[in-house]
Amino acid sequence: MEIVRIPRPMRWFWGSLGAYWLADMINPGFFSVAIMALLMIPILILDMYFPPQAPVMAHKVDHAALPDNEDEVD
């Protein structure tokens, strides 16, 4: 499976400008697409500076599930 790369924020900006331009010529529905693309830019910038962390797979012992006296355990 290939790794999917998200476009950089500048490409989102140009795409939103293109959608805004199309909204004037073709269909006003493209205006909402342009706004959603512009609102996505800060999220992409934060993802570049703060990448998601890998999940930690450490096994933690649940002490509440253990009995008080270990002699009683079979």
Q: What are its keywords?
A:
74 residues; mainly alpha; elongated
A few lines on this structure:
The protein has helices spanning 9-25, 29-49.
Question: What series of H and E elements makes up the topology?
Answer: HH
**Structural class, judged by helices and strands?**
mainly alpha
| Overall pLDDT score | 80
Work out the helicity level.
40-55%
> What kind of assembly state do the chains in view correspond to?
single chain
Q: List low-confidence stretches.
A: none
Give the termini separation: 47 Å
- Report the strand count: 0
Principal-axis shape: elongated
Strand percentage, roughly?
under 5%
Description of the molecule:
With 74 residues, the protein is mainly α. Helix content is 51%, strand content 0%. It has a domain at 1-50.
Topology of this structure?
Blueprint (H helix, E strand, L loop, with lengths): L8 H17 L3 H21 L25
Helix pairs in contact: 1-2
